[in-house]
Amino acid sequence: MKIGGLDIPNRLFLAPMAGVTDTAFRLICREFGCGMVYTEMVSAKGLYYSNERTEGLMALHPDEHPAGIQIFGSDPLIMARMAEKITESEGDLIDINMGCPAPKIVKNGEGCALMRRPELVKSIVREVVKAAGKPVTIKIRKGWDEASVNAVEIAKIAEGEGASAVTVHGRTREQFYAGHADWEVIANVKRSLSIPVIGNGDIFTPQAAKAMLEQTGCDGIMVARGAQGNPWIFRRISEYLCSGVVLPEPDAGQRVIMAVRHLKMICEMKGEGLGVREMRKHIPWYLKGLRDSAAIKQAVNSKTTMIEVEALLTDYLRSIS
If DSSP codes are grouped into helix, strand and coil, which group holds residue 124? Predict the structure, then answer.
């Protein structure tokens, strides 16, 4: 698959998720067959004011390419200037976030709030495309609410201003992540564009991935919550699309071992204190549905060192084996 002049090894994408898709998790997902990963959302204003933490979000490991840098903002000129800065980085493309539903984002007129202002969308995409020396894509939702479904309109504007691909999450902003994703809106966008369309929403199984491709005709599939604690989903989707074989889900041992590996990676990359704190959200995802895991999920929150967390997980695995 191609996005602009960028070759993507397959049709599977890991969604950018704030506080989730850091370097450690992206590398793990790449290892399991994800074709394209994205950084967490990067604030254009944060880059403009040289915020150290914001700049750190753009760091990429050599083994995770192709990788996109996702930015958010609402000022076309600041977005364009930061696109120039990103062009000098190792990111392979720039993705503009127009789908984040978080209140703190939309109250500033950013994220999904941009879908309420098509003329601003046009200006932002135009200026970023002009400034960028690499492909520019956008990620949108179905619309703000059911009374203002305008994914096709926004997608066509982006294509007209030079965007190289569009990702569509089949929910409105008002839905957040509730209910079911509307795949028909993804199909409508695909029918309206000549550039690649990536579908997003409710991909938790290999069967769902295949169904989305068949029902929408989309060019790629983006997995978000379905990958949390479950990087195996990319290998399982790939195998199912290629052979029709549904590989088994990871067993308890594989899940706990991967949680320990993830823990060690994130502590090495971010330091033990921050790494342990951030694993407090990943470990419940890895253990979801496992026997007697509730107590372990709670106990993790009281641990402050990597050795303590590793010992907790190792003892838990022994107890259920």
Answer: helix
